[in-house]
Amino acid sequence: MNRIELPTAPAGERPGQGIDYELFLDCVHCGLCTSACPTYVELGTEMDSPRGRIYLMRGVVDGRVPLDQDVRRHLDLCLDCRACESACPSGVKYGQLIEPFRADMQRLGRTTARAEPLPWWQRFIVFNVFPYAGRARLALLPARLMQAAGIDWALRKSGIMRLMPRRLRDMHALLPPIPLTRKRLPEVLPPIGPPRARVALFTGCVADAMFHDVNWMTARVLQLNGCEVWSPPRQVCCGALHFHSGHEAPALAFARQNLEVFLNAGKQLDAIVINVAGCGSMLKDYGHLLAGHDDAQKAKQFTSKVRDINEFLIELGPIRPSRPVKMRATYHDACHLCHAQQIRKQPRQLLEMIPGLELVPLNESEICCGAAGSYNLTQPEMAERLGERKSSNLLATGAEAVFTANAGCLLQIRKHLHRTHPHIWVAHPIEALWRSYEGT
């Protein structure tokens, strides 16, 4: 690839100028983050490690490093999985460096072409369809009809799929089984048994379109644990797809609407519950996203209520499930649950409560599977390498079921495992818990 250097911008126009410079200085370059970084583990190159990327960003801010194609490629390859934050003894807030830096590059137009740019139709889907639940459901209708009629199975078996463009094949390979019909989630579901809490359920956008049944199971599990469950109809995407890709303005608009919906409804909420790790991490970051804005205080009030479903149930004290789920299972730590939210024990505690379920450890459980929001679409080569690495580790456990608490991980892991082992159940921990509560 030919090196393309962009002229060094004047200091006032360089990306990253608005970042607190002390955040760069927190990194002491000890290198303890490198063994936790998926791209460094795979490539072994310094500039594809958190330490190297911090050096590059700081160099661009200082004017010492031109924002050329090579620099952009190293920054683009970051999954923003935040594993480096868990590993760092100095408490470097890497997410608060890479995310605003990418947003600045988009805003200032200081970008170079990717090695493999997304075609216009895929950009449209990622940023104009996926973040809108209604549009995502409509876009998935042909896939639902094809699955229901058996056409999808026939296309896979016949090999015709191999004639499709690679990017379309990649997107198709990620699709889970989607029921033809869907039962709408009521706005309010009453508690079952003695009332213990009133919660709002954040249902998400593309996750709700693909995993609507998981939202239903989450609501039912909350009901069985004595919660009144409110699902606001005007809630919108958390903003993660845009924000992690450097598109800050749409992310801010989504965040403000969610603040309006959840805080101004006159409901006294004990928690805002979310079952998708990536969305939960973004919702908990609203305080950082809106810092310095007029609604910063409202954002702090909102984030103080946000709880991952696993986290909330353990805090509440879950009613013990009684029906056995007899299988050998393992658990994959979704990056934005274990690294961004530091939630590791709670999903395992819930799974270990299920009678008959044998939970076995997973090697490299906290290494990213390669999903990372839209990463498996924008960086398919690295996503494929990480997906295969994760699949090998999962198969080595001999598990009949794999649980993970994030929609993107479910899609990525199912894609790689089901190539050779379609019998393995890939599911959210709440699905196992629901099965043990209801015996279905």
Q: Can you describe this structure?
A:
The chain is α/β, with parallel strands linked by helices. It has four domains: 11-108, Fumarate Reductase Iron-sulfur Protein, Chain B, domain 2 (Orthogonal Bundle); 120-174, no CATH class; 188-314, Glutathione S-transferase Yfyf (Class Pi), Chain A, domain 2 (Up-down Bundle), CATH 1.20.1050; 320-438, Rossmann fold (3-Layer(aba) Sandwich). 48% of the residues lie in helices and 8% in strands. It has 25 helices and nine strands. The strands form two sheets. A five-stranded mixed β-sheet has the order 1-3-2-4-5. A four-stranded parallel β-sheet has the order 7-6-8-9, sandwiched between helices. Strand 8 (401-403), helix 24 and strand 9 form a beta-alpha-beta unit. Helix 15 (248-263) packs across helix 18 (296-303). The model is unreliable at 1-11 (pLDDT under 50).
> Helical region count?
25
Helix fraction by DSSP (H/I, runs of at least 4): 40-55%
Characterize the largest beta sheet: strand count, sense, and whether it forms a barrel.
5 strands, mixed
* N-to-C span: 54 Å
| Widest β-sheet, arrangement of strands | 1-3-2-4-5
Radius of gyration: 22 Å
Strand content: 5-15%
What structural category do the secondary elements indicate? alpha/beta
CATH architecture of the largest domain: Up-down Bundle
In short:
The chain is of the alpha/beta class and 440 residues long. 48% of the residues lie in helices and 8% in strands. The chain has 25 helices and 9 strands.
